[in-house]
Amino acid sequence: MYFLYIFALFIILLSFFKSKEKTYKGFKVAWKKFKNILPSFAKMLIAVSIVLYLVPENIISKYLGGSSIVGGTFLGSFFGSITILPGFVAFPLSSVLIDKGVSYTAVASFTTTLMLVGIITFPIEKDYFGWKLSITRNIISYVICIIISVVIGIFYGEIVI
Amino acid sequence: MSKSKFFDVFLVSGFFIFLFVSLITDFSPGITIGGNFIDFVKSMLTILPIAFILIGLFEVWVERKTVEKYFGDASGIRGYIWAIILSSTTVGGAYVAFPVAHALYKKGAKLSIILTYIGSSALTRIPMTIFEASFLGLKFSVIRLLVSIPLVILSSVFIGRLFKNKIRD
């Protein structure tokens, strides 16, 4: 994180010394872009705060803990798709799930959909890339997540073929 | 004011009224939601302003030619490799990757390479992967990376072909 700040400061100073005008112009572009996407960010933040209230960690852990490998995988991918959790919450939660006896397959479907499928970030994605592309990308990403989970399951001996 | 803009204002102000009413009536779901909201706003504020400033500077300084060379139609397989390297250093999450990807796209990057960047920025961010490996084991992370990266590239090429010239600016 600090690296990002130092890096950004360095870039801004460099840009400033090379050309004041261009730097100001860059700031203007930044502000304009930020302003344009702000409504979608606001919607996303509202959605996240409500979804995290409705589906807190203990609910995820309760439902995933009590289900079979197939059920757990689909449920995991469902929770992963509808929420966003920062890594420092998601991975400790996952290791708790493993300790509780949840399969690696189900945990993989949860963590990978968390990363790759974004129903909550959809408003932002659609603003940049349009409805059709965003829907296609999310559906294909979901399939990829299920494939990853199955491969994980095979390597951990949970899925026997 | 357009219809959708009106809806946005309605939604956002409705949300804040709900939080405010929850606070004075001690309505616990509302208070929890408000707390979540503040947490997320805070974490975004630590990244977003800087990300957008860097994007703005990118727009004014980096020439189209350069982006085309590394990420454009002629970049070939190297374009995908650059996209993955760039994505592994992305901070934040999808909400940072989307504007970055869009800025690259507008400067002449190829759609399939942009999609590879988006997908792999979700999957290969270095700090996140280290965190994952320390909680779920190195084996887990290695399998996940080895399976996901080729799939992300393949699907990006596929979607890129499907949507060629169909993306709005």
Explain the overall architecture.
The complex is a heterodimer of chains A (161) and B (169). Chain A is 83% helix and 0% strand. By secondary structure, chain A is mainly alpha-helical. In chain A, α2 (20-54) packs antiparallel against α7 (122-129) and α6 (104-116) packs antiparallel against α8. The mean pLDDT of chain A is 92. With 169 residues, chain B is mainly alpha-helical. Chain B folds into two domains: 1-50, no CATH class; 62-167, no CATH class. Chain B is 82% helix and 0% strand. Chains A and B meet through α1, α2, α5, α6 and α7 of A and α1, α2, α3, α6 and α7 of B.
Short recap of the structure:
Chain A has 161 residues and is mainly α. Chain A is built from 8 helices and no strands.
Domains of chain B (count): 2
Rg of chain B, Cα atoms, Å: 20 Å
SSE topology string of chain A: HHHHHHHH
Give the termini separation of chain B: 23 Å
Structural Rg of chain A: 20 Å
How much strand content do the residues of chain B show? under 5%
Give a count of the beta strands of chain B, DSSP E runs of length 2 or more.
0
Tally of DSSP helical segments of chain B: 9
Overall average residue pLDDT of chain B:
91
Largest sheet: number of strands, sense, barrel closure of chain B: none
Structural class of chain B: mainly alpha
How many DSSP-defined strands of chain A? 0
Order of helices and strands of chain B: HHHHHHHHH
Distance between the termini of chain A: 43 Å
Subunit arrangement of the protein: heterodimer
Helix content of chain A: over 70%
Tell me the layout of helices and strands:
The complex is a heterodimer of chains A (161) and B (169).
Chain A: H1 2-18, H2 20-54, H3 57-65, H4 69-82, H5 87-99, H6 104-116, H7 122-129, H8 131-155
Helix pairs in contact in A: 1-2, 2-7, 3-4, 4-6, 5-6, 6-8, 7-8
Chain B: H1 3-25, H2 28-45, H3 48-61, H4 64-71, H5 76-88, H6 94-106, H7 111-123, H8 126-136, H9 138-162
Helix pairs in contact in B: 1-2, 3-6, 5-7, 6-7, 7-9, 8-9
